[in-house]
Amino acid sequence: MPMSADDLRAHLVEAFPDADIAIEDLAGDGDHYRARIVSEVFRGMPRVRQHQTVYAALKGKMGGELHALALETSAPVEAG
Fold first, then answer.
1. Distance (Å, rounded) from C-alpha 66 to C-alpha 80?
2. Going by C-beta distance under 8 Å and a sequence separation of 6 or more, which residues neighbour residue 73?
3. What does DSSP say about strands 32-38 and 68-74: parallel, antiparallel, or unpaired?
4. What is an example of a Pfam family matching this protein (predicted)?
5. How far apart are CA 23 and CA 77, in angstroms?
6. 52 sits in which H/E element
7. Which of 41, 69, 42, 65 is closest to 55 using CA atoms?
């Protein structure tokens, strides 16, 4: 059974409560999403580690309930 966008958001908010999160269902099937996550947690992390952190937050659902997830992760841009 596919994962709903609400369930995906709930997992991400639980793991990254400070984050600005945007989710897009790419195919309309609840199985292919794009998620943009901007969180202070990612500051100083290489991109690969950022993505690993997101996959860990999904608690094994990636590849099962969630077939495909295109990720855009970053730390907030500091005003200067």
1. 38
2. 36, 37, 38, 39, 42, 47, 50, 51, 54
3. parallel
4. BolA
5. 20
6. helix 47-57
7. 69
Q: What is d(CA 1, CA 55) in angstroms, rounded to the nearest whole number?
A: 19
Q: Would you say 17 and 38 are in contact if contact means Cβ atoms under 8 Å apart?
A: no
Q: How many angstroms separate the CA atoms of 57 and 16, rounded?
A: 9
Q: Is 53 helix (H, G, I), strand (E, B) or coil?
A: helix
Instruction: Pick the closest to residue 12 from 46, 45, 50, 44 (CA basis).
Output: 50
Q: Would you place residue 78 in the very low, low, confident or very high pLDDT band (cuts 50, 70, 90)?
A: low
Nearest to 51 by CA among 65, 34, 30: 34
> Over the stretch 41-62, which tens digit does the pLDDT of each residue have?
999 999 999 999 999 999 888 8
